[in-house]
Amino acid sequence: IAKAEKIEASSDHALCVKPVNVMDLAEEVLGMTELAVDKRGCNLVGDGVTLINGMRIGELPLVMGDSYKITQLLYNLVTNAAKFTSQGHIRLAAREDQAKSMLEIDVEDTGRGISPDALSKIFEPFHQETGQDARGFQGVGLGLSVAQSVAALHGGSIRVASVVGQGSTFTVCLPCDLKQRAGLSRAKEEKEPDTKEAEPKEADARDSEASGSEALMRRVRSEP
Q1: Which of 32, 81, 152, 164 has a Cα at 20 to 30 A from 47?
Q2: Which residue stretches of the chain have pLDDT < 70?
Q3: CA–CA gap between residue 148 and residue 194 (Å, rounded)
């Protein structure tokens, strides 16, 4: 939660590059998203939506990058998916492209999808999709733009596939070191989700920060 409070809609500063275990970051991002609330004080993740961590098993190559900024990137993508997903799931998964020495991270949702016309604009600063299923999460439209900028700073990219009425998949491609690999840290693997009441954080007007009032933390589902 402390990390969520510090995430800012800015990608201007230099990167602090070191080996990054994306499996650990995925666990953190899903945990922060579980505690996020919208402008009305409602859980950002709807009751009909399950967050799925599809990268808890095995090992993945380490990304040479800035852990803080990659967390920001993933958090922006997952909370963006939550804005427009009222039923189904939001799933994080990853795979390696050995030929290109890249790690590909999918943020997949079963939301309303994005029209072909809107796809060309979603990474523009201050662009916002509208609709009833945005559910009070009204920012200034910087989340996806910042995510794209962070990927570019790492020498990577983001691509999108979407079908209206079925959902979207944002795929982040980041350079990785195929010789350095790691699984989920033991402390995170063994930690049981907290089911006590916790203070959630509101996804604020900058699309990437969090603050808010009390709500019950729900479980994040793991997937083999």
Answers
A1: 164
A2: 1-13, 126-141, 186-224
A3: 32
